[in-house]
Write a structure and sequence with these properties.
Layout: H1 8-22, E1 30-31, H2 37-49, E2 53-58, H3 66-75, E3 84-87, E4 99-105, E5 124-130, E6 133-140, H4 149-159, H5 164-168
Parallel strand pairs: 2-3, 2-4
Antiparallel strand pairs: 1-6, 4-5, 5-6
Helix pairs in contact: 3-4
Length: 185
Amino acid sequence: MYHSPPNSGYLFSLMVAVLVAGCSSTPAPAVVDGSDTIEARRLLTEAANSGPVTLIVLDEPGGMSLDHIADAIESGIRGVTVRLLPVTNDAGDEWADAVYVAYIAGTGGGPACGRSAGAHGRGFRLALCHGERSVAVVASGPDAGPVTERELWQASARLFPDDYVDSYGFGWFGDRISLGVGMGF
């Protein structure tokens, strides 16, 4: 009985599917309903112009120092230089009118800002707070395993979107058409 050689197109498709499945990452950070990322960006810029912005870390992720967390969050903020000053105590009375960034382990739970802030579950939340009020909150992180630096900067980029186009009017063709140069191999 004659057996034809395996179909190379089928094998190639199978290899590509395995490769893509192996390279999949965590879902993109999600902006929590009721968040105003434009206002968060504006408040962060104002606070950064006055000096370091406080980063309150509740339930720090294992394996990362406070400075490492701050550096990862800073690297996701584009278009403005922000220096985060990490602390581990929660927002008490001294932060009643302050603008600060909060890192909360877990995507579930109650408010992200103030003394009643808390969370449970997997992943993390990153929030910009003005006193007890959550201006904007982003939920992200892995379903299993530790939080990575990449997940932190992706979340901060989502929480504080770059406002270059809105501020300087470079979006000549709107959001759908862009000019660019690319090169591939």
